[in-house]
């Protein structure tokens, strides 16, 4: 039964994003002209397939490990997961060299959706010895919102249990050794994103 379920999930995931047009990161800015941050959704909320954007193919594929598609063997993603185009977690600062990850707390969005968001804060963790940053955000579009938090204080006070759930999820969703290093507010997050974009542009 477990194998059949995984096959069905795999087929559904492939159908859901295989027909989309190819996306070039050159067409997407990290910020709008008004200074609003943007992210590209890879993994829709409620999905357990490890979908990733491939720069060379300009398309989305399920990541593979040892020749097999990767799935989260835990609760599905608690939000829409993706990254900020043209950002990078600097290896000089202990990062993995990849783009900054974003977990967007919103209604479910399709793979390949470009969405404007407001950062509430970020969770810093160490994954297998490498620094890893998980930005938590909410959509600018009111129709996509599911919580009313506008900043880290709102999120920590009014949605304390949601914050705890997110932290527990990142601690347990993979087989890697993960250490939680702390939470940071929206101002620290904005500075982090701006620095990461500058880092990418100077590469």
UniProtKB/TrEMBL annotation:
Q: Which GO terms describe its cellular component?
A: cytoplasm
| Enzyme Commission number | 3.6.1.1
Transmembrane segments annotated in the record for this chain: none
Could you tell me the keywords of this UniProt record? Answer: Hydrolase, Magnesium, Metal-binding
- Which Gene3D superfamilies does this entry report, sorted A to Z? Inorganic pyrophosphatase
Which cofactors, by name? Answer: Mg(2+)
What's a single GO MF annotation on this record? inorganic diphosphate phosphatase activity
| Gene Ontology biological process terms in this record | phosphate-containing compound metabolic process
The cross-references to Pfam families, in alphabetical order and at most eight, read: Pyrophosphatase (PF00719)
The answer, when asked if Metal-binding is one of the entry's keywords, is yes
This protein is called inorganic diphosphatase
Query: Which species is the source of this protein?
Result: Psychroflexus halocasei
């Amino acid at each position: 039964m477990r194998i059949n379920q995984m096959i069905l999930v795999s087929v559904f995931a492939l159908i859901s994003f295989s027909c989309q047009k190819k996306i070039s990161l050159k067409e997407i800015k990290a910020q709008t002209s008004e200074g609003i941050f943007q992210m590209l959704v890879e993994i829709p909320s409620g999905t357990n397939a490890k979908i990733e954007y491939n720069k060379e193919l300009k398309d989305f594929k399920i990541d593979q490990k040892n020749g097999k598609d990767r799935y989260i063997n835990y609760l599905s993603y608690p939000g829409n997961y993706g990254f900020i185009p043209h950002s990078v977690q600097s290896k000089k600062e202990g990062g993995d060299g990849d783009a900054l990850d974003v977990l967007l707390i919103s209604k479910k969005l399709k793979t390949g959706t470009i969405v404007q968001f407001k950062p509430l804060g970020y969770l810093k963790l160490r994954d297998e010895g490498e620094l890893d940053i998980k930005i938590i955000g909410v959509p600018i579009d009111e129709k996509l919102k599911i919580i009313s938090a506008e900043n880290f204080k709102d999120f920590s006070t009014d949605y304390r249990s949601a914050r705890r759930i997110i932290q527990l999820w990142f601690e347990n969703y993979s087989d890697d050794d993960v250490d939680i290093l702390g939470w940071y507010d929206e101002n620290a997050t904005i500075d982090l994103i701006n620095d990461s974009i500058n880092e990418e542009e100077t590469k």
